[in-house]
Structure to design on (205 residues):
């Protein structure tokens, strides 16, 4: 297996691999260029996102600034919106469904590192490169979700369709469909139902 194949499969891989380093540099440059644009630079922004995120649906809008490790390993469904400071470390696949709203300062983090320092510390490999041992797990977010501000979604997390994740939560496991969940770690509080429709919230009108 190549180092890229190992990485995407969640196996220990060498992040100093030249192919991976090249992909990261490319993504980081595209992010920097995107972050240097203004909201009305629509054509330039679209061009940069096409290069950074080849798997995205129609109607994707990223407020910026944005930060992706690779970009090409992230899939965004149609009508995806992310507010300021959207960060995605996609060493394993990251998948968002359709009609997902993401608040400011949300981080989606697929990497993992060894707990024991002997395995975690930087070392010099036989090929002479300085590297470390890393691995990861994919993250999936379903359709029709709202991820509130300052949420962190960690490696291996799966959020079902129709969920709301409250601000400041740290998502580590599986959140079932149609759940209101929040906390550190994130826990399901209750199911979202028809009674949550705006038409029943008279006080808002």
């Amino acid at each position: 297996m190549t180092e890229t194949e190992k990485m995407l499969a969640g196996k220990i891989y060498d992040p100093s691999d030249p192919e991976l380093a090249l992909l990261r540099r490319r993504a980081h440059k595209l992010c920097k260029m995107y972050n240097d644009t203004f909201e009305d630079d629509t054509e330039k922004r679209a061009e940069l996102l096409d290069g950074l995120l080849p798997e995205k649906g129609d109607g994707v809008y990223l407020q910026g600034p944005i930060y992706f490790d690779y970009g090409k390993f992230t899939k965004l469904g149609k009508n995806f919106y992310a507010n300021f400071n959207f960060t995605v470390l996609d060493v394993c696949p990251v998948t968002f469904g359709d009609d997902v709203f993401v608040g400011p300062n949300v981080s989606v983090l697929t990497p993992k590192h060894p707990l024991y320092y002997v395995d975690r510390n930087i070392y010099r490999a036989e090929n002479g490169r300085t590297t470390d041992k890393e691995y990861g797990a994919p993250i999936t977010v379903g359709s029709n979700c709202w991820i509130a501000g300052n949420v962190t979604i960690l490696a291996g997390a799966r959020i079902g369709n129709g969920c709301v994740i409250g601000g400041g939560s740290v998502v580590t496991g599986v959140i079932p469909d149609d759940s209101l969940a929040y906390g550190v770690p994130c826990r399901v509080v209750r199911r979202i139902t028809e009674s949550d429709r705006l038409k029943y919230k008279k006080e808002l009108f």
Summary: DSSP finds four helices and 21 strands in the chain.
